[in-house]
Design brief:
alpha/beta; Spore Coat Polysaccharide Biosynthesis Protein SpsA, Chain A; 2 domains; seven-stranded mixed sheet; five-stranded antiparallel sheet; 7 helices; elongated; transferase; Nucleotide-diphossugar_trans; nucleotide-binding
Length: 307
């Protein structure tokens, strides 16, 4: 599920750190009416795409989570340089963000960005624009023209009720996510950044909690990890099925294709489907007949598999 980002770090900018928090995948996205394996995989894919955008922009990126084997998950996703730390408390999102903020400032970050992990359309250039807007607001509020300035700014989510991003310049993050967090952040003195962005940037705001949200996100353009779970023709999320790796297609009469190493899978219903190389679990090339995998399938096409 590799989701590499292109480096978007502006030259001469203050050091920026990003913090994201990830709850255990068994608890993630409970509002989505999906089979548990697909719900967990979708939550991870959206997080990976969000994190990749942050990692392309920030000088340091940290994830606060007690998700088991998180470093392995991030390495397989193609984001190995992200720091993963365990939460000091189990009191939810805001303490996790505050912990990450403290760690990043100890590493010398002047600017800290906290973001939700379900922005699968997030683009690095849009994230850079939000940081630039926050820096501009902080500088405008400073009486010293040579100073970085101080201040906090937030981006409301697509509903306008929640918060998708919070940026703190040279002061503590003071996060107030969850619930009516846009209102809470504004009341705490953080400036709304959407009105001061250079242009509408919907990828900053399109969080995903429902099937409708996901369809709207797909219309904006999903990141590669999430896109791998979606039918490229219909734009709909594929269906989950357990599958078993079958004998190589070299034993079939059908010809191989350029991207197909000759493998196939058998569904629970006994249907044999080709397994393209692009759908191998986390890019693995070592699959053996009899191995059991989770799969996302659309029609008779295998979109993705994982262990």
């Amino acid at each position: 599920m590799a989701s590499p980002g292109h480096d978007q770090r502006p030259v001469g900018r203050p050091q920026v750190g990003s913090v994201l928090a990830l709850k255990p995948l068994t608890e993630a996205k409970s509002r989505l009416d999906l089979p548990a394996p697909l719900r967990r995989r979708l939550a991870l894919a959206m997080f990976v795409d969000t994190l990749a955008a942050h990692a392309a922009v920030a000088d340091l990126t940290v994830v606060v989570s007690d998700q088991p084997a998180l470093r392995t998950l991030l390495r397989r996703a193609g984001i190995p340089d992200t720091v993963a730390i365990r939460p000091e408390t189990d009191n939810g999102l805001n303490p996790a963000f505050a912990q990450g903020d403290h760690w990043l400032r100890e590493q010398g970050c002047d600017v800290v960005v906290a973001g939700v992990g379900d922005l699968p359309t997030l683009r690095p250039d849009d994230l850079t624009a939000a940081i630039t807007a926050a820096l501009g607001s902080a500088e405008a509020a400073s009486s010293d023209s040579d100073a970085l300035g101080t201040g906090r700014g937030f981006v409301a989510d697509a509903s306008g009720v929640g918060t998708s991003l919070l940026v703190a310049v040279a002061i503590p993050l003071d996060p107030r996510f969850q619930g009516r967090s846009a209102e809470a952040h504004a009341a705490s003195g953080a400036r709304a950044l959407v009105p001061v962005l250079d242009r509408p940037r919907p990828t900053l705001r399109r969080d995903v909690d429902t099937a409708t949200d996901l369809r709207e996100a797909a219309a904006l353009g999903l990141g590669p990890a999430t896109r791998a779970l979606v039918d490229p023709d219909s734009g709909d999320l594929g269906r989950w099925e357990p599958v078993t790796v079958a004998e190589p297609r070299a034993h079939d009469d059908r010809p191989w294709t350029a991207d197909d190493p000759g493998l196939a899978v058998i569904t629970a219903g006994g249907h044999r489907l080709p397994l393209p190389a692009t759908a191998h679990p986390d890019g693995s090339r070592v699959l053996r007949p009899g191995q059991r995998l989770d799969a996302v399938i659309s029609g008779d096409r295998v979109l993705a598999t994982w262990w």
